[in-house]
Structures are given as structure tokens and as C-alpha cells.
Amino acid sequence: MILQTDRKHDRTRRHERGSILVICMVLAAFGTIGVAAWLSLLDARGHQVEQNLTALKRRAHYNNGRALAHLAIYKNHLHVAEGVAADVVYEIPGGLGRATVRAYDGAPLRNQSSVRRSKIGAVPLRSFSTDVRVDLPDGAGDREWQFQLRSYNPVLAGDLLVMHPLADPEDTSPMISGNLAVKGRAVFWDAVVRDFTAGLRADEYHLPVDIAGQTSFATSAGGSTLPLNYPRPRQTTGFAGSTDPYRGGLDIVRSIDNSHNAYATRVQASGTFLELNGSTPYARGDGPDTEPPGPGNSDDSKIKQIDEVAASGTGHDSLYNRLLNAPRLSSDVMVHAVETPAAFHPGKLYEILDARHPLPIDVLTAVAGETTGGITEEERDALFRKSNVWIWSNGAGKIVVYLWSPNLQHLIMREVTELVLEGPDDPAVADSLSTESPVALLVDNPPGIGLDRVEFNEQNKRRIVLALSTASPASGDPDPNYSPDMVFTGSLPFPDWRMILDLQNTGAVFDTTAIAGATVVGGIRANRPLRVAAGRLTLEREFDTNELETLLSRNAWIESYLQ
Amino acid sequence: MNLRTDIGERRRAYTLVEALVASSLLLIGVSAAASMSLTLLTQEEINERSVKVFNYLDNAARLYQLGVPASDIEDILPVEPGVQALTTATGTTTVPLLGPVDVTTMTITYLASEALEKNQASELEWTGGDVEATRSESVSLIRADSYIPADLDSGSDSDSDSDSDSDP
């Protein structure tokens, strides 16, 4: 019995010792698992932290790719004349970033197929867009971005006054002086304080970011305002000679390198345009090109009689009666009469021609170039009006355009020293022209010839684009006149002129004293100083963009969106 | 019989040697755990510091790529006690089809294990590690100026010119 009890107790004690050991081992196992888990977690945390750095570099390289795409499009695509036929891959050595520009058609500045609403506030609300897909690697794959190569005319977008960097950097006169009121935004690519203290008033100012010095900015109503506080997207008008396309140079009137954004290209593409030279007499009206000699036209005898009268100084009345009463007069006879004013008493030649409207083009051209006094200015004007002449040149640099004519076409003019734009004096006629298609009037003077005077007579409610270009002379030659007088005349006070003025390498000296003040409904873009020498000039916005936005030269910029 | 039974049932205690050995083992384990805990806590603090510094570098890089001048970035970002220096060095690399492109290397140097000053925005105190231990990391950046540059060099935009007629 005792032995059995001792054995039982010994067995129980051994079991208790074993249980403690098991418990200790279990506890040790749990502890080991806990410590191992802790270590594992910390190790994972360490890896996660280091991966943050990897992710950071991937993000940086992804954004490098986006910046690279911007640089590449600025450098190679935005301002050029053609699209890309195959994908182009740009890659920074060392794997620091890559951008793949997918193929696209057409030059952005020439694009007319797509009009988008803008999504940011610093650019025109409405603009053309060439959409370019760009793939950017983010480390795990490619992300698709859409780079929208936008373009639009800034004046039409509300920048009623746009001053590009001056073509003559040495010019220290204020960019704007005199009584100029802008009922919209005045934009300066580059400016200093003096440009805002010589009379300019504008409702909004958009200035270069680094302008220094204190000044006040006056609104068109005479109040004070602060300039807009957002930067202006990098823009281009295309190639501008040898200068950087993004530094505000202008080559938009007629250009070889920048033909895709030049007015002349757009005008020529329309198919309805006229090219003429101010140094050649010219006139265009409703009449035929010429009036040929025909049956019953004894041209030789008439011409002979004209010469005899001019030589002898007698027989004026007989000649006058014969020509006035002739059933037909050929162009040869009429042109010879115009060129021989000595054969007619004052006013008689006018009467002969006045009876034969519409006069043939060759006769009108002779009248336009007549400088000996046989036909007075008033008589010439009357003849032209009755023959519905819409343009003429006197061959001495003066060109006159009648804006009310239904035949008016786009014009490309050269060697012009004086340009007269005749608007209708009848308000009803002026109003009737407000829905006509816009017309571009281009003056592309060669080196050495400057436009001296532009006359705006009466009023104009037909939308016109007046683009003037003055070429710089060769080295050593004298400069032409870069700042033509722009004079508003007529019988109507405070007339409206619907026009957009694009002044390439050209300034202006405005004079509105004859009509007290004028309003340009449109705007002005220039890269030489503008001065309102007398009177007051106001700029207002043109809201009718129909057909005008595709005619105007544009600025291009980039907007990019993740797809 | 009862006496024999009581004597026989008395349990045998652990010997002194057993207790000493067990205590030693326990002490070694506790010491190891304590040491490892401090090391792991320090490592975790290093991790946290690194995360903050990497975020700092991330923000600095983004600001730079957005067009902020490098010299202004440190003034814009909130103070991060771990950061010893943020430097930039700009070089040029040639990108095929594009030409020379400025590449800026932005380098951040930070104290990996202990801050020199307390971050007022944080309640954490650094508790371990070598004060002098630093680490540097770099990232290479390029950027495109998407706005009209201020230096058009037209001749009429110089600061001196602006200042000379600054008073209206």
C-alpha cells in the first residue's frame, strides 16, 4: 500500500515538472513568434520607407517626362508648319524621363478643324486645338496625356491692345502715349513703368512678371486698378526671323518661313484676293477690262483729232461734241483722251467720261494715274464712285479703298506710302455692311519704303483686318518711316471703325481731331510705339467672330491634360 | 503510517543551482529583448525620419518642377528638423532630337538618427542613435517654363531702366 502510494506520488511529480516545461516552451515559442513578427514588421517598414524613395524618383522622372514633352513641343512642334508623320520618342539619357509624341496631322497654327472651350482662365475661352497624344512612363507603365496645341487671335479673345516686345530695343519712348482708352484688356509682353504713365487707360492690365517700380494703372472710366496677377502662358506666333519663336517676334503679314500663320497665306487660300503695287496705276470697278474698237468706231480719226486739238490749241468744242455724242468710245480713245488733257477745256473730259459708266478698267486705270490736272481730284472721285470702283492706285504710292463696295476683296498691297480707307457716310449703308464677310487689307512694304499716312474717312461697320508690315532696310540704308500718321476724317463725329490692326514692325501716330474722337471696334497688336497725338482713341471688343477667327493670325500655346 | 505518508508526499524543491541557472537564462533573455527593443525603436525612428525627409524632398522636387526658383524652396516648405541641407546643382545633358536640356540634381542631406532641434509640430522625441550619422539622397529633375519669360531682352525691361523712371 505504501509502495503504491509513493509510486503514485512520484508519477504525479514528474507530470507536474513536465507541464511546467511545456508551458515554458509554449511561452518561449509565443515570445519568439512575437519578436519575429516585430522584426518582420520593422523590416517591412524599412523596405516601405526605402520604396518611398524609389517612388519619389519615379514620380520625378514621370514629371520630367511631362516637362520634356513641353520642351519638345515648344522646340519642335508648336510653331512649325507641319505635323508629325510618325511617333517621336524623346528620352533623357540615364533613364531620367521619356516622352513619346504620337503622330498627328497639320500645323497647330493653321488648324481650323476644332474649336474648344478653355478650361483655365489665363487663355482665350474659345480656341482652336490640335490634339496630340503623348505617352509618359511612370515606372509601371505609360500614362496617356493629351497635349492640346491651342491657337487663337489674342485681340479677338479680349486682349484689345497687345504690345509685343519692341522691334527697336533702343527706342526709349513710351510704348503708349496720348489719350488711348481700352475697354478691355491691355497686354504687354514686356514693359516698364513709363509705358503706363503717358495716357493709357485700360480696364485690365496684363503685365510682365518682373516689372519693377511703383505706378498707377487707370481704367477706361478713370478709376484705379491693379494689374492681373496671373502669368501669361508661353506663346508663339510662329517663326519670327532668326529670333526665338517664343520671344514675341512678329512675322505674320507675309512670310516664307512663317507662311502657316501669315495673313497672305490665308488670304491666298481664300481664292478671292487682289495683289497690287502702289507704284503702278491701277483701278478696279464694275466695268469690263477694256472696250475694244468695234464697227463704227473710227478710233484713228478720233485719236488724230485729239492730238491735233492738243497741238493746235483750237477745236476743243468740236472734239468735245464729237466724243460726247459718239455712240461708243473704245478704251484706246478714252485712254488717249485722259493722257492728252490739253485737248479739253476744264471739266469737259470729265463730262465725256461721265456719260459712259461703268468705265472699262483700263480707262479707270488711266484716270487713276493721271497727274497732269486734266481731271481734278473731285472729278476722279466722282467717276470712280459712279463706276463702282472699289480700289485704285495713283502709281505714286497712294492706294484708295472703298469699303462699301460689294466687290471688295482681300488685298495684298506693296510699295504703299499712303493708304486711304473710304467708309460710307450714310449710316444706313454702314449698318448694312455689318453682316458682310470680313476683309483683310495687307500692306507688305519692301525694305526702304515706309507707309507715311493712313486715312480713315467717315465710318466703317464692315469687319476689316488691317495688317501693316514695314521691312527693315539693309545695313547702312536709312530707315523708312515706321510710324505712319493714322488720321480719322469725315463728316461724322465720334465714328466707329470695326477693324483689327496688326502692326508688324510698325507703329502709329493717331489723330482724331477732325472727328473729335474715334472708336476702333476690334483691337491693336503692335511691336512699335503707338501715340495718340491729337484727339481721343477708344478700343472696344469685337464680338462677331464668324469667319474672322479663321482669317486672323494667331498665337499658339499648350494645354495638357491626363487622359 | 500517516507520518510515513506525509514524509513520502513532501514535494522536492528546485535546487539553488536550478534557480540560478533559470534566473541567468531569464536575465539574458530580458537583456537581449531590452537591447533589441531599443535598437528596433531607433530603427523605427530612423524610418519615420526618412519618410518625413523623403516627403520633404518630394515636395521640393515638385515645387522646382512647377517653376519655383530653387533658392525659394526652403523658404516655402515648413521646417523639417531632420534636414541638414537641400542643395541643387544644374548641369546640361543632350537629349536626342531636342538638344541641350538643363538637368538639376537636387540633393537632400539629413540626420538619420537624431534631430538637432525639436520639431514643434511633433510630440515625438528622438531617443537613440548616433547624432552625427547623416544620409544624402538625390533626384534629377528637369522642368519647362510654361509662361512668358521675364527676361525677353528687348532692351527695355532691365531693372535699372525700370527703376530709373519708376515714379509716376
Describe what you observe in this structure.
The complex is a heterodimer of chains A (563) and B (168). Chain A is α/β, with parallel strands linked by helices and 563 residues long. The radius of gyration of chain A is 38 Å and the shape is elongated. In chain A, 47% of the residues are buried. Helix content of chain A is 26%, strand content 29%. In chain A, the strands form three sheets. Chain A has a 17-stranded mixed sheet that branches. Chain A has helices at 2-76, 263-270, 299-312, 316-325, 331-339, 348-354, 361-369, 377-386, 427-432; strands at 88-92, 97-101, 115-117, 126-137, 142-152, 159-163, 176-188, 200-206, 217-218, 224-225, 273-277, 281-284, 391-394, 398-402, 410-414, 418-422, 439-445, 453-457, 460-470, 485-489, 496-504, 508-511, 517-526, 530-540, 555-562. By secondary structure, chain B is an alpha+beta fold. In chain B, strands 1-2-3 form a three-stranded antiparallel sheet, with helices on one face. In chain B, a hairpin with a 3-residue loop joins strand 1 and strand 2 (99-111). The longest helix of chain B has 51 residues, at 16-66. In chain B, 23% of the residues are buried. Mean pLDDT of chain B is 76; it is low at 154-168. The interface between A and B is large, with 70 and 59 residues.
